[in-house]
Structures are given as structure tokens and as C-alpha cells.
Amino acid sequence: MKQWGFYFDQTRCVNCKACILACKSWNEDKRGDAAVNPELTWLTTGRYEEPAEYENLAGSTGEQNFTDFAKYHMKENWRRVIATEYGDIPPNVDVLNLSISCNHCEEPVCVKACPMHYIYKETDFGIVLTDKNKTCISCQRCRQACPWDSPQYYEDNIKKFDENDSAKPRMTKCDLCIGRIRDGLKPACVASCPMRALDAGPMDELKQRYPDWTDKVENFPDGGILNLDDNTKPNIIFKKKIRRV
């Protein structure tokens, strides 16, 4: 097995969120409500009642094709960009951006926390995946255990769903775009980054490619789970930005 992971150059990230949009667009069909609400009817916003009513809107009139735009409305945030501001009076201010998703840990605590064996670590690339042949009972133990909020649900208030409700949120997570990797491509977040702040690949190759790497930056939990007496050993390395203030 070649363990894959991420490299993030904190000096390059401008918080444009292209990685977030690319992740949502590429993985939209894997969102948690895809099986129960595949058309994304937007009833809660009152925008329309039937997606078919908007499928053939002409772009020349300035109207939007909401069916086409549905791919950007995946509610889970598999990749997140966190901006932390420092200072209060310019020019003595600075911002540190941090783009993270699942870190496909060597010792994934989410796997250990799941009572249903719904999460596992595959053996080709070391990617932490969900097993669609197993049942997620929405207990959220994986989410509670993860230091990075990687396990996601399309609806946070799970208690409002009945136990046997088919719409009850099941956990979803970043799969490192394993299908793209098998096709010889980079993950969607990496491919979309205009500043080339993200990269992905076998960890030994990333460490050779970026010899100035570090495994610690500000605002990034190091993977130690104190209450579980465990360390997940996340597969992500960084080029660190030194804040000015």
C-alpha cells in the first residue's frame, strides 16, 4: 500500500474557496440526501416546486438554470477553509488560512469509534472510506471522535428524524476522490486550486517533493485524542506561514 495524503502550502492560500466548490461539484451525487431528495427541489426556500420547471430556462434571458446549479448545493462540507485573523489595527494584522478535509489517518479514530463498522481504511491508497454495504445508525460517534470534523451529515439536527425514517442523515466523508486517483488524476480540490496551495499523493513522494514540509501549523489539531489516549497520525503535511503579528 502507498499511503496517500495531502500537502497544503499555507503561504499560497488566499481563501478563494475554489477547493470547496470543486469538492461539492465533483461529489454532489454522493451527498447524504441524494437518495431521498435527488432533485433538490428547494421547497424550503420557495424558489420552485418542481425542478423540471427550470430545466430549460434560456441563459440569454438572464434567468438561472437551477437544475444545473444543484450540484453546488451539497450540504456537507467535506473540505473547509478556516481563516483566523490576528491583530486589530492595520498594518499590524494578518490572516492564516487553513484548508482541511479528512486526513486519512494511519490510525483513524473514526473507524474505532463506529459501532457498525461502516467506516474502514482501504488497502490500495490508505484512504478512509464508508462501506455502503454496512449500516450507518447516525450515532455521530465518528464525528465526536474526529479532531477535524471530517465526518459530515447533511442535517445536523438528527434527533428530529424518526428512527426508521429513510431521510435520516447518514454520515458521509471525503474519499480523497479515489475514483479520480484510480484514473490517474488528482483529487478535485487539488486540481481546482488556482494558487497551487494544495497537492495530494503518496506521502513519501510529497515529502520528497516539498523538503521544507512540517506536520504542524497553527490552528491544526495534531491528531492526539486525549480522552481516547490515542493518536490518529494524520496524513497531511504543510508549508507553514509565519504570521506577522
Written account of the structure:
With 245 residues, this protein is of the alpha+beta class. The chain has two domains: 195 residues, Alpha-Beta Plaits (2-Layer Sandwich); 33 residues, no CATH class. It is 16% helix and 18% strand. The protein has seven helices and nine strands, in the order E-H-H-E-E-H-E-E-H-H-H-E-H-E-E-E. The strands form four sheets. It has a three-stranded mixed β-sheet with strand order 6-1-9. It has a two-stranded antiparallel ribbon with strand order 2-3. A hairpin with a 6-residue loop joins strand 4 and strand 5. It is globular.
Task: Give the helices and strands, then pairings.
Layout (H helix, E strand, L loop, with lengths): L3 E6 L8 H9 L39 H4 L10 E10 L2 E9 L8 H5 L5 E3 L6 E3 L10 H5 L32 H5 L5 H5 L5 E5 H7 L14 E2 L4 E2 L4 E4 L6
Parallel strand pairs: 1-9
Antiparallel strand pairs: 1-6, 2-3, 4-5, 7-8
What is the β-strand count?
Answer: 9
In CATH terms, what is the architecture of the largest domain? 2-Layer Sandwich
Which runs of at least 5 residues are low in confidence (pLDDT < 50)? 41-49
Arithmetic mean pLDDT: 86
Return the string of H and E elements: EHHEEHEEHHHEHEEE
Q: Which range best describes the helical content: under 10%, 10-25%, 25-40%, 40-55%, 55-70% or over 70%?
A: 10-25%
Q: Roughly how many Å apart are the termini?
A: 42 Å
Biggest β-sheet, characterized? 3 strands, mixed
General shape: globular
Count of separate DSSP helical elements? 7
Radius of gyration: 20 Å
Overall structural class, as computed from helix and strand content, comes to alpha+beta
- Order the strands across the largest sheet as they lie in space: 6-1-9
- CATH domain class of the largest domain: Alpha Beta
